[in-house]
Amino acid sequence: MYFKESNGFPETFLWGSASAAYQIEGAASEDGKGVSNWDQFVRIPGKTFKATTGDLAVDHYHRFKEDIALMAEAGLKTYRFSIAWTRIIPDGNGEVNEKGLAFYDAIIDECIKYGIEPMVTVYHWDMPQALQDQYGGWENRQIVKDYVRYATTLFEHFGDRVHYWITMNEQNVFTSLGWLTGMHPPGKVMDQKMFYQVNHHANMAHAYSVLELKKRYPDAHVGASFAYTPGYAWDCKPINAMAKADYDDLQNYFWMDVYAYGRYPKAAIRYLESNGIHIQMEAEDQKIMKQAAALIDFMGVNYYQTAAIEYNPIDGVGMSTEVNTTGKKGTAKEEGIPGLYKKPSNPYLEKTDWDWTIDPMGIRMCCRDITSRYDLPIVISENGLGAFDKLEEDNVIHDPYRIAFLEAHLKELKKAIDDGCDVWAYCTWSFTDLLSWLNGYQKRYGFVYVDREEDDTTAKLNRYKKDSFYWYQNVIKTNGKDL
User: Fold this and answer.
1) What percent of the chain has pLDDT over 90?
2) pLDDT for position 321
3) What 3-state DSSP class applies to 106?
4) 68 sits in which H/E element
5) How many CA atoms lie within 13 A of 142 on its CB side?
6) What is the value of pTM for the model shown?
7) How crowded is the C-beta side of 136, counted as CA atoms within 13 Å?
8) Contact indicator for 91, 128 with CB cutoff of 8 Å
9) What CA–CA distances, in Å, run from 404 to 230, 358, 386, 400, 407?
10) pLDDT tens digits, residue range 355-367?
11) Residue 196 Cα distances to 170, 175, 284, angstroms
């Protein structure tokens, strides 16, 4: 749509940044913390860039007051962070660790002191390894009960101060990389039946948790954060338009329809059943999913890139078990599902060094699609650029590429709001530099440079503000008017 004048961002708009416990906290075995699946997975040779781990990360565990003071200086209105299950219930289903609760009490209270709204992610991929050892983790229905007990512990302890909750971070990512490509825990390759069963267990954990939160705090805002990668049909051939429809049902709506409607897309289920994949459900599951969907307050969106979609013949390319972790542009491989779709490189878009397309208009596409399909408010829970940043003399970091990236996306987000999308918040990924999961510390996302490389023993961990820090500070101060 075209509008002669923009209404801009709402006065109540929550400008923020996001992080995840494993990627920033460190203190891997302090104060009673248990071992997570990621603590163990990163020690498998070849899984991460230069064998990097989150043992130290950027030491947010000991430096959170310094980091939150910098957030306040930048003017953040909200800080989205995750809680490590292993700090609250170290073995996943045993005794609650009071020191873990106290740590997050301190983070929440520090945010509130500065007028920063805490936005809590219940699960950002770091499951207690003990649950994997006990019964297979997400593969076993028992995980639903243990997850809901963990989530309820958080609601009861922090719910008086936390008004925004995200149950799951990128369920589509941790399940596909865990059970299809082998790049995340538990490292399984093309276990399709278990992939879909695991997703159902995660959906039930999400649904029951929503119900438990709303019992206790009916006015709390809750949703899940979905890694949304909109697809463009390669051209106007009908077969490619149908390939895009298949892609949407299997790669996007398969999750968002559950969050918003409490059901799976019919075409996706028919396709799975035709391939001998039947999701095992208990008698009340569909009822519980629908009850939770009726209580959802927003759709969380982690937006980074779009995909071009083309028909993939039955003997075409499959999923890749490799990913660009080096930052050497042009090393990513084409992938797809034979007989349905593939994702060729889009010649109309620039790419990052990690081969992610740069498509600011895609964030507007996300919002428009969610608004039309689900009529839900939207929280942009992640959006950012991973890049090679350089610490120069006098400890300055010039990152005009990050400023350009974020500014272009915010201009499109403003247009989405003009289009009628109800967007509540925008959280960049991330505030400080952090561990980029498989990519080590070289792939930097933050407004604040953390002085460390892959080697923990040489890490100084000093914080330095990048040019983008001051840019975002001004964006927040003017509520986006100076874009």
Assistant:
1) 94
2) 81
3) helix
4) helix 60-74
5) 11
6) 0.97
7) 11
8) yes
9) 21, 11, 13, 6, 5
10) 999 999 999 999 9
11) 15, 8, 18
Q: Residue 404: inside a domain, yes or no?
A: yes
Alpha helix positions (H), 114-216: 129-135, 142-158, 171-179, 192-216
H-helix or E-strand containing 82? strand 78-82
- Under 8 Å CB-to-CB from 269, ≥6 apart: which residues? 279
Instruction: Record the tokens describing residue 26, joined without a space.
Output: 């460190």
**Tell me: the pLDDT tens digits for 7-30?**
899 999 999 999 999 999 999 999
Tokens 């790049």 locate to 183
Number of domains within the chain: 1
254 within some domain: yes
Q: How confident is the model at residue 333 (pLDDT cuts 50, 70, 90)?
A: confident
The amino acid that residue 355 corresponds to is D
In sequence order, the 6+-apart residues with CB closer than 8 A to the CB of 396 are: 464, 467
What is the spatial distance between Cα 453 and Cα 346, in angstroms, rounded to a whole number?
A: 32
Angstrom distances, CA of residue 130 to CA of 27, 63, 93, 154, 321 = 18, 28, 9, 20, 26
The CATH number that applies at residue 99 is 3.20.20.80
CA distance 325 to 46: 11
| CB-CB neighbours of 98 under 10 Å | 12
- Report CA-CA distances (Å) from 195 to 2, 253, 334, 419: 42, 16, 21, 36
Q: Which residues lie below 8 Å from residue 50, measured CB to CB, with a gap of 6+?
A: 440, 454
Calpha distance 307→367 (Å, rounded): 16
pLDDT tens, position by position, 448-473: 999 999 999 899 999 999 999 999 99
Cα 133 to Cα 436: distance, rounded to the nearest angstrom:
26
Look at strands 299-302 and 231-233 and give their pairing.
unpaired
Looking only at the bridges linking them, the beta strands covering 357-358 and 341-342 are: unpaired
- Using the structure block, give the residue that is written with the tokens 């398969």: 254
Q: Tell me if 3 is assigned to some domain.
A: no
Domain containing residue 81: 14-477
In tens, the pLDDT along 296-322 reads 999 999 999 999 999 999 999 998 888
Q: Nearest Cα to 169, choosing from 251, 82, 250?
A: 82
Tokens representing 71?
């957030």
Decide if 1 is inside a domain: no
Instruction: From 151, 175, 148, select the one nearest 165 (Cα to Cα).
Output: 151
Q: Which two tokens stand for residue 332?
A: 């990513």
Residue numbers annotated as active site: 382
The pair of three-digit structure tokens given for residue 476, joined into one six-digit string: 């927040």
- Contact by Cβ (8 Å): 254, 264: yes
Token pair recorded at residue 33: 């913390």
